[in-house]
Amino acid sequence: MKMRILAIILLIAFSGCQSPKKEYDFTFYKGNIKESYYLKFSSSDTLYYINNFAYKEQTFFTILTSEEKEKIQNILDTITFPKDEKFTNSLIEDGETNAFNLKDNKQSKNLTIHGNKGPNQFWSFGESLFKIKNLHKFTRTNKTFDLSVFNKILSAPPPPIIN
């Protein structure tokens, strides 16, 4: 009997020793000639989709599966943001822009990639988020988000000087 009680106490003590998952406030932006949207994830099972195409902002939500939530959480736990915050073509051309904003309780990190420039792991992450988005049906909501940080992240470079 004493062994059983001791085993239960040890089990409870060790289960409480797991390191807690980091809480994130993560926003992804994807824009090209066909679409412009944000995906918002905050360590819960809800994924928000903010459609910004043609400057008509509409917000929707869906519930992620536990596997999808875990996949996003694991990537956010391990991905390393580069020191440079922007990787873009110097030429003016169409292409896809992905921007990432990750806030945790300590800091905020930003990255913009455009025209196949930038770290491959971020292009892959953007593609996996795109696939998750396309697997879901979203429900309209009136919830709003402050996306003003993307005004700076997505600001276009000045046009080239022509002599």
List keywords for this structure.
8-stranded mixed sheet, 163 residues, Mago nashi protein, globular, alpha+beta
Could you explain how this protein is built, in words?
- The protein is an alpha+beta fold.
- It has one domain: Mago nashi protein (2-Layer Sandwich), CATH 3.30.1560.
- It has four helices and eight strands; from the N terminus they run H-E-E-E-E-H-E-E-E-H-E-H.
- The chain has an eight-stranded mixed beta sheet with strand order 5-7-6-1-2-3-4-8.
- Strand 2 and strand 3 (46-51) form a beta hairpin.
- The longest helix is centred in the C-terminal third of the chain and has 15 residues, at 120-134.
Spatial sequence of strands, sheet with the most strands: 5-7-6-1-2-3-4-8
Largest sheet: 8 strands, mixed
CATH topology term: Mago nashi protein
| Beta strand count | 8
- The end-to-end span amounts to 90 Å
From the coordinates shown, what is the CATH architecture? Answer: 2-Layer Sandwich
Strand content: 25-35%
Estimate percent helicity.
Answer: 25-40%
Instruction: Point out poorly predicted stretches.
Output: 13-19
Please, how many domains?
A: 1
Class per helix and strand makeup: alpha+beta
Q: Determine Rg (CA atoms, Å).
A: 20 Å
Shape: globular
Return the average pLDDT rounded to an integer: 83
In the CATH hierarchy, what is the class? Alpha Beta
Number of helices: 4
What string, H for helix and E for strand, traces the elements in order?
A: HEEEEHEEEHEH
